[in-house]
Specification:
This protein has 15 helices and no strands.
Length: about 240
């Protein structure tokens, strides 16, 4: 396992670029640890090693993923997020406890949160809907990334119109949160639900616009017709 970890890091370092590194830092308020590699290149590196990694047993795959997260490099976390959706058929409900621990321990910016939760957690929820009650509890965490994770883990299912009631429950919990990255997270979730459930999301926004921060409102209304946006925002 150490050998493949060294090979991955060698490839990442070989593709690092100062300009890309500085550009990446502009997208974050917090300090980030980044090699400076274009996303497409990271994806190619992850794809290169996955045929070997997938032959490992689950404990070794998870140990390798945790080592990549532990480094704190953005690109190494991206490798994990590229790999695990390809492993969805082997994931079991009990694995959510491991992933929750990773979010609490290693996720420290919106990009790591979204790339890991959108597909790995989102795909697990679609496969095992019984996990939804646990994911909903993340919204009451004191950890800002767990709170964002509760919302963005439903993004991919929401695009298909799934789990609307649960999405509203998560938004109910997060609606008064003062963290703009949490607000953007649940606003994004509402936006994606509106692709299939436009009326329901609009009615939800109208009912909650007095307490919903404008940041969340704007995200939630992004796909709405202009007249809907105007109606929702005029008294917000």
């Amino acid at each position: 396992m150490q050998k493949i970890l060294d090979q991955i890091r060698h490839d990442l370092q070989a593709n690092a670029d100062d300009k890309t590194r500085e550009t990446a830092r502009h997208f974050f308020k917090e300090s980030i640890k980044v090699y400076g590699i274009k996303t497409a290149t990271v994806n190619k590196i992850a794809k290169k090693y996955w045929p070997t990694v997938k032959t490992y047993g689950k404990p070794d795959i998870f140990a390798l993923c945790e080592e990549l997260f532990h480094s704190d490099y953005m690109e190494e976390a991206s490798v994990v997020s590229d790999w695990l959706p390809n492993y969805i058929h082997y994931l079991e409900p009990g694995d959510l406890a491991t992933f929750k621990c990773w979010i609490e321990t290693y996720i420290n910016n919106w990009a790591k949160c979204d790339s890991f939760c959108n597909h790995t957690i989102g795909d697990m929820i679609q496969k095992y809907p019984q996990l939804l009650p646990e994911v909903k509890t993340w919204a009451i965490s004191s950890n800002r990334w767990m709170k964002r994770a509760s919302a963005v883990s439903l993004i991919v299912p929401a695009k298909r119109g799934l789990f609307l009631a649960e999405a509203f429950e998560i938004c109910d919990t997060l609606i008064g949160d003062g963290d703009d990255l949490v607000q953007k997270g649940y606003g994004w979730l509402l936006k994606e639900e509106s692709r299939v459930h436009q009326k329901e999301v609009f009615d939800y926004v109208i009912a909650h616009r007095a307490v919903m921060p404008r940041t969340a409102l704007r995200y939630a209304l992004e796909l709405m017709p202009k007249e809907f946006k105007a109606e929702a925002m005029k008294k917000a």
